[in-house]
Write a structure and sequence with these properties.
Length: 296
């Protein structure tokens, strides 16, 4: 966008340069970014806070039909809000209408969740047959299967890293097709897997450490609520929480998620510059091969 000061995207950069440029673009333009995104980020934070409170309440106080319906509704609403969130961030760098970005965002989300359902379904099918064959099965006997699934999920997560490039490309280039994400775009990202890993790992770790530190108030609120429930249910003590505690809880959750949303913008910007660097390297390679053909 014209209001966002950006370095040239068509430039081959090292992974450290991608991190540096993403940091610079975020903090040099933070006021403009905040003014153009706060309402979207606030909506996501409030919806996430309500959803998290419902899940916490269910774990501490038990479930009911009304709560199940509410959790399903807010979970679906949160997924839609996440898509709008990413679409708004990409709006900052591609300058295209929100409707265009949201449509592309929902297409990517549909592919992602379809893949997750496929993986979870396969793991559930394997677990069901394992229990059916070896029943009765103790929790200890299921431990090797759980370890195998965790290892498989880590491998799958690493293999999905090239989709960072593919997703950004789908948002940036209007002529990019959804089917290319599963073919040529993924293949290009896979060839630069090491480069992407070296940039995304420190970016994600940095954001996670800051997010963990900022989550201390939220953890304190959850701990206080848990101890209160334990005292009431198992010791018979009266609850020591004030009547306005849910307001405090919701406010702390919403503020924490709101800050998290802006921290994650840095990771998205890193992916944006990774895409630009990979595209620049592709052009340089084509130009080099063409020059070799001419001189041959």
């Amino acid at each position: 966008m014209d209001n966002i000061k950006k370095s040239s995207i068509s430039k081959s950069r090292s992974y450290t340069a991608c991190l540096s440029e993403a940091h610079r673009m975020l903090f040099d333009n933070f006021r403009v970014i905040f003014s153009r995104t706060w309402i979207y980020f606030a909506a996501l934070a409030v919806i996430s806070a309500v959803c998290f409170m419902l899940y916490t309440h269910t774990m501490l106080y038990g479930n009911s039909t009304g709560q199940t319906v509410a959790m399903c509704g807010f979970s679906l609403l949160m997924l839609c809000s996440v898509v709008v969130y990413y679409s708004r961030v990409m709006f900052l760098v591609n300058g295209r209408p929100m409707k265009w970005n949201i449509i592309r965002g929902f297409r990517l989300a549909a592919c992602y969740y379809a893949f997750c359902i496929l993986v979870w379904g396969a793991q559930a099918f394997i677990t069901y047959n394992y229990v059916l064959i070896h029943q009765p099965v103790s929790p200890e006997a299921l431990m090797p299967l759980a370890i195998a699934f965790n290892v498989a999920n880590i491998v799958i997560g690493l293999l999905m890293l090239p989709y960072v490039y593919a997703a950004v490309k789908y948002f940036i280039e209007p002529e990019s097709k959804l089917r290319h994400i599963l073919t040529s775009s993924y293949a290009t990202g896979l060839r630069h897997w090491g480069f992407m890993f070296m940039a995304m790992l420190p970016a994600v770790l940095c954001v996670l450490l800051i997010a963990l530190f900022l989550s201390i108030p939220m953890l304190i609120v959850i701990t206080a609520n848990s101890y209160s429930v334990f005292g009431v249910n198992f010791i018979g003590d009266p609850t020591g929480l004030p009547s306005y505690f849910p307001v405090i809880e919701g406010s702390v959750f919403a503020l924490t998620f709101f800050i998290w949303a802006y921290l994650n913008v840095f990771v998205i910007f890193v992916g944006y510059f990774l895409y630009g660097s990979i595209e620049a390297r592709k052009k340089e390679k084509k130009a080099f091969l063409k020059q070799e053909q001419l001189t041959a």
